[in-house]
TrEMBL record:
Keywords on record: ATP-binding, Cell shape, Cytoplasm, Nucleotide-binding
UniProt lineage: Bacteria, Candidatus Beckwithiibacteriota
GO BP term, pick one: regulation of cell shape
GO CC, alphabetical: cytoplasm
Pfam families: MreB_Mbl
Annotated positions binding ATP: G163, G164, T165, E211, E212, V213, K214
Protein name stated in the entry: Cell shape-determining protein MreB
Cellular compartments annotated: Cytoplasm
NCBIfam families from the UniProt entry: PRK13927.1
Subunit-structure text: Forms polymers.
């Protein structure tokens, strides 16, 4: 049986989740961007979902770390250790010879990062065992993942609402014409839910519980049938455990200002876009990517605010890693779109 001598990995290193695609195998890592380690020795104890389950439940001797904040590496060592764990895990899927040669990695990053922040992502991948690490701007990768032919002189507007950032970009001729990166996204919504429940209901929730609320009953527009979700937290007044029923309508009200901020940014980008490209966008519609693209009604709200059609790409949470995988299969296009300034 033929085995490739080298192997390539596409890495979407997100604030909330990390996805890794192994060429020829598809997405084989889909885990929360969380690690648990001993506080003093820094010994790794758990990664991904296993570590996320420890959030808010860990003793003083163990720290649970979310190494990416707002799309930027906040803890370099934790990021490198996490990637190394996944790279070693992936090596079990391949033969011994390519394992010795180490992988080539292409990673997606948010727009607007400084040179130092970009270099940190590259260095983390190299420290984790990559033989080479290339960087591509996330919106461009998301566009490829959505099936857009980015090399054409044709304008497309991509809105990628992730965990830590919302990326809004107009793409044409293999490049980004206008873009904006907001530190307002899925985790901002979780924090807003925690704050609202604390202030209005006197119940203290963890962010993991707030995320469950958002996923289960969060919406941007009115639902045909409103939903209810039961949460458990600590009563602020009594200090005792308490259960509470939350309704989708009240959560929608909590999320509305955040969604309005995102839609306003989309409208601002359209105002900055050259007229010829606006005509293309009107024809093709706005493409919605990212996990928050699964929230009911968010496409409707953006469409009403911009007066443009909005389409949600298939499996929007996978758009970036899917686009990166396409680049690994097209060396010429990868060389055209990868970031080069100040990077090896």
């Amino acid at each position: 049986m033929y085995l490739p001598l080298v192997y390539d990995l596409a890495v979407d290193l997100g604030t909330s989740n990390t996805l890794i695609n192994l060429s020829g195998k598809g997405v084989i890592v889909r885990e929360p961007t969380v690690i648990a380690r001993k506080k003093k020795s820094k010994e790794l104890l758990a990664v991904g979902m296993e570590a996320k389950k420890m959030l808010g439940k860990n003793p003083e001797a163990i720290e649970v770390v979310q190494p990416i904040k707002g799309g930027v590496i906040a803890d370099f060592d934790a990021t490198a250790v996490m990637l190394k764990h996944y790279f070693e895990q992936i090596s079990q899927h391949i033969g011994w010879l390519p394992r010795l040669l180490r992988p080539r990695v292409v990673a997606g990053i948010p727009g607007g990062l400084t040179e130092v922040e970009k270099r940190a992502v590259q260095d983390a991948a190299l420290s984790a065992g990559a033989r080479r690490a290339l960087l591509v701007e996330g919106p461009l990768a998301a566009a490829l993942g959505a099936g857009i032919e980015v090399i054409r002189p044709d304008g497309h507007l991509v809105v990628d609402i992730g965990g830590g950032t919302t990326e809004i970009a107009v793409i044409s001729l293999s490049g980004i014409v206008v873009n904006r990166s907001l530190r307002v996204a899925g985790q901002t919504m979780d924090q807003a839910i925690v704050k609202a429940v604390r202030l209005s209901r006197g119940l203290l929730l963890g962010e993991a519980t707030a995320e469950e609320v958002k996923i289960n009953i969060g919406s941007a527009a009115a639902l045909e049938k409103e939903k209810i979700f039961v949460v458990r937290g600590r009563d602020i007044g009594k200090g005792l455990p308490r259960s509470l029923k939350l309704k989708s309508a009240e959560i929608r009200e909590v999320l509305a200002p955040i969604i309005q901020e995102i839609t306003a940014a989309v409208a601002d980008i359209l105002e900055e876009t050259p007229p010829e490209l606006v005509g293309d966008i009107l024809q093709h519609g706005i493409i919605l990517c990212g996990a928050a693209g699964l929230m009911p009604g968010i496409d409707q709200v953006i469409a009403e605010a911009t007066k443009m059609p909005v389409g949600i790409t298939e499996a929007p949470q996978d758009a970036v890693v899917r686009g990166l995988a396409k680049l690994l299969a097209n060396a010429r296009l990868l060389e055209m779109v990868r970031l080069k300034r100040g990077l090896s």
